[in-house]
Amino acid sequence: MATTHFSLTKPFFPATNLHRKTPPWPTISGRRVCYTSNNLETHQPLTTNHDVLTSKDVMEGDKKVIVGTYARTPVVFSSGKGCKLFDVEGQEYLDLTSGIAVNALGHGDPDWIQAVTQQANTLTHVSNIFYTVPQVELAKRLVSCSFADRVFFSNSGTEANEAAIKFARKFQRFSHPDNTHPPSDFISFSNSFHGRTMGALALTSKEHYRTPFQPVMPGVTFLEYGDIQAATELIQSGNIAAVFVEPIQGEGGIYSATKDFLQSLRAACDAAGSLLVFDEVQCGLGRTGYLWAHEDYNIFPDIMTLAKPLAGGLPIGAVLVTEKVAEAISYGDHGSTFAGGPLVCNAAIAVLDKISNPSFLASVTSKGQYFMKLLSQKLGGNPHVKEVRGLGLIIGIELDVPAAPLVDACLHSGLLILTAGKGNVVRLVPPLIITEKELEHAADVLLKCLPALD
Fold it and tell me: In the predicted model, what is the mean pLDDT of residues 428-440?
């Protein structure tokens, strides 16, 4: 069967006046048609002069049809296996980004594939009007391996944080039935990132994320991450519905909270009746070598938000809550059409079962320690390297200059890395299945590419 090649280098139709009366899209006998492989016989074929689709074709097509919200790296990936990605030209890359800490089991994990294909062949979506087995089974697992008593599912991390905002407000209203103005404000911290929807955005500290969309949700105070005195005093004011904090900040620059800081938040929230919310969207589910990052501190929240790695690449978020929070939530207080569907939940069960295995978590701890030691030995003597920090396989390399030249140099050497903080931190969040040999290769590439910073 002949292969059809589609052009992504030409627009589907010419630019038109927005006020014209005739439709700007192609029509046949007055009916709108779309260019697909099924109706090419009725249209001018969308072919190219190339034998195969190239990265240039895809990138030029992207500019014509995708809203320009992403400053994309100029690579077009077509496949992946384990910790490796391959672009459309066949170039191999070692992936230390994991799709921004999402692909914890790497690419093409066989157990994940089996869970997805099995469920896709059985039942994909019915909405939350009805019960499904995978959703209940996943919730049971999350409750059994955490502090929580109940779970609410969403589609992403920012949606999980939006739900946590609503739950916190509703909890305070429920807890203060005679108070016309129950506590409704929030505390967040410097270098925080909680999402890009309007409520979660209001909790995100970087002004350049928030400024174009002002006014965002009012009532948020940003404090210095780790400032015990300021946080305690503000919580004691009695106006704080909840405190949102990342035990380890990912986007903010791989900063870890101290035990004293989290303990002080816990004590102050308990005394004032405020809720403590841990955002573990990036640092949770095995990334630190603990199933949940807060386990390293032995301090537990009232609410925890999860997302990125939970379904191994499919969109899911989760809000884990204690019974006292759940009691405040009634039918209709929140909801989602797609959230917690059987397909994504079955995938998440496969991911959670594998990562929660104690031997798997122990391997993350040992590989993280090994990688940190390698990086410190190989890179620590470079004058641009200020610090190597992290826990498990969430690691940051702080530089005294912007990290972008190093990211680009590594890309050209077949290594994918991220930035964080103010652009001066290299963020390393590889798949948790990465081998020591692959970590050694990554450290060697980073060392080779360090001169790009000069």
Answer: 98
